[in-house]
Design a protein that fits this description.
The radius of gyration is 13 Å and the shape is globular. It has a five-stranded antiparallel β-sheet, covered by helices on one side. The chain is of the alpha+beta class and 121 residues long. It has a single domain (4-103), classed as Alpha-D-Glucose-1,6-Bisphosphate, Chain A, domain 4 (2-Layer Sandwich). The protein has three helices and five strands; from the N terminus they run βααββββα. The longest helix has 12 residues, at 92-103. Helix content is 21%, strand content 33%.
Length: 121
């Protein structure tokens, strides 16, 4: 599978979005119920981490995944985040939808939810 790139403008400051990428409790609410991006154990290897702008990981069975966070002017709090995700993931838009839902206070109910990480067949 070829890496895909998706980009989203999130109407929150970068510090808030970054926390959702690296805080294990927050990551569980949108990313995957069993993996953590930063301390995911042997299934996730951190390739590069530059707080609060870049996180690159390698996930067993999925591949490499990179999150680029850029703070931009504008938005309801005068700052927004342009988040670009590059990786070999099956549903990148769904992954960012889940992240935005979490940031609005609606984490994924993993009972019955499918992982957005697995490559589409």
């Amino acid at each position: 599978m070829q890496p895909r790139t998706v980009e989203r403008l999130i109407d929150l400051p970068r510090a808030i979005v970054w926390d959702a990428l690296v805080d294990p409790v927050l990551v569980e609410g949108w990313f995957d119920p069993e993996l953590r991006l930063v301390d995911g154990g042997p299934a996730v290897i951190v390739l590069d981490r530059r707080d609060p702008e870049l996180l690159r990981v390698r996930i067993d069975g999925v591949g490499d995944l990179a999150f680029h966070a850029e703070e931009v002017e504008g938005g309801t709090r005068d700052r927004s985040t342009r988040l670009r995700v590059v990786g070999e993931i099956g549903a990148p838009d769904e992954l960012l939808d889940r992240l935005e839902d979490l940031l609005r206070g609606h984490p994924v109910d993993w009972a019955g939810a499918a992982s957005a990480l697995r490559p589409a067949g």
